[in-house]
Amino acid sequence: MVQSATDFDVAIIGGGPAGSTVASLLCKYNPNLSVLILEKEKFPREHVGESQLPLVSHILHEMGCWEKVEQAGFPIKLGVSYTWGQVSEPWEFDFFPAEEFEDEPRPAKYDGQRRHTAFQVERAEYDNILLRHAEEMGTTIREQTGVDEILKEGDSITGFKLSTGETVTAKHYVDASGHAGLLRRAMGVESMAPKELRNVAFWDYWDNAKWKVEIGVGGTRVYVRSLPFGWIWFIPLGPTRASVGLICPSDYYKERGIPPRELYDEAISLLPDISEQLSDAKSELNNESVHTTKNWSHLASRLVGDNWWLCGESAGFADPILAAGMTLAHSSARETAYSILDIEHDESDAKWVKNRYDTKNRKNIDQHIRFAKYWYAANGQFTDLQDHCIEIAKDAGLKLSPKDAWRWLSQGGFATEFAGQASLGSFSLNAGRHLVDRFLGGEQKMKIAEYNVFKLNMRGAQKDVIGDLQNGEIIRVPCFKRGEAVLPLTGQYGEIHDMLKQSGDIDKIYSYLMTHIRGNVAPGAENTTLAGYLQTLEAMLIQGWVTAKLDKRKPQIQIGSTTGRMIRSESAAKEALSNAKGSIKFH
Length: 587
Known about the structure:
Low-confidence stretches: none
Number of helices: 17
Number of strands: 27
Distance between the termini: 47 Å
Structural class: alpha+beta
Mean pLDDT: 92
Largest sheet: 10 strands, mixed
Shape: globular
CATH topology of the largest domain: FAD/NAD(P)-binding domain
CATH class of the largest domain: Alpha Beta
Strand content: 15-25%
Number of domains: 2
CATH superfamily of the largest domain: FAD/NAD(P)-binding domain
């Protein structure tokens, strides 16, 4: 559908996942808005970045297109199998315990176990589904239409001059152009790219590739395998198709001085399990070349201006080792849509909305970059990259002991994708700590396990509000702020805050939580929910919202790890799968 008028409420550069997410949510919550997507290519088109995290499924559900993506039959991602850290034995990081995953027909509904899983997608098909969904929602789509010039006055954009010769004007302009960052560059916004994560990616697609494990109906894992000079991804994209790529530092590639395909083939030959999965497969590029791109992490110095917004990869990108690219694209796009909706409803609070968007999303991207630096610095299997990893650790101020690593990661702050829940990048606090232990050895126990009496510490804190995204509105939620630390008075944060005003004894806190949980969560989810509350208390202690002491006259409770079924060795996972609820096939 092409709209003849050239004046819109919102004009978006880029029809990928970020642009489609902004458009779909705008049209869903305010159908009166006129929304335009300008896309230089004709969809469907190929794109790298096929592996997702569970948050993407939540956003797809809100957009109203999760069922369409599920209908496409993409493999269900339950987690990732890694070789990474100090030991060579594979270990697995699952979003949902594989032995609990039950067989169910597909397409399925976004409910139960599927709320904890993600997709592995063919980007050509996936991106096209999202773009057509945005069009069905009422967005005007202009494909094969580039933006040749961004017209501006000061910090305001006055229009887009198109490749067709037209000039489009809008009230809000959105840069979802990906790495190109057309609007970002035109507005002179600098982008920080840490030299430690300046990597290159080489990849190919393979037909007749094997799956190493089939979990239930259509479920499997992504495979990440360390090499002396980088790492390989193996992403099943269908019953017989896979994306296989190599990541290595750009400096290492230059030093080797060999063609990309030769380096790529060398990497695969060093990994017996990946070679086996490709033993009967055929390269899409006939083993003659590879797709290639720079995979440089970066973060824009600001994400918003007078009437423009940066989202998706234009705003920032974190190294693919965390598989966070699609999550950051969808989540920042969701934030963009909500921000525009809020300003359209009431312009009087526009300054607060913009500051919130910029601060929250830059912090979220930065935390992912910080975590990616740690992953690289802690990989003892990068034998050819030891000096490189030492430099990363040095620049980060890491001594690479578990205690120092955890302190450094925690200092990055806790990203709150949803107000009231603490997370470290895309991981729970417990998962983050468990990864530190696995990479470096030792055991980094929860700090709260050392104490049994807790007390709120509001000294120097100021009352403020943060935003919680709900049903198309940014709900103003009261909070306390002290420096960079934020304590939302909602969700689990709010409940722990109110609980501590009644009693600081851990046994009473535990008793209250168990009573509350048993009456409000589904059977079988009690332990996971309890872990969430304890992690929230842990975050409050780390950020100084709570002080703690050990009173030997009072009882203590044992607080163990809650990641035993989520992060474990391959051998431990296989043992657990012997009593799986659903079907499991190993190849």
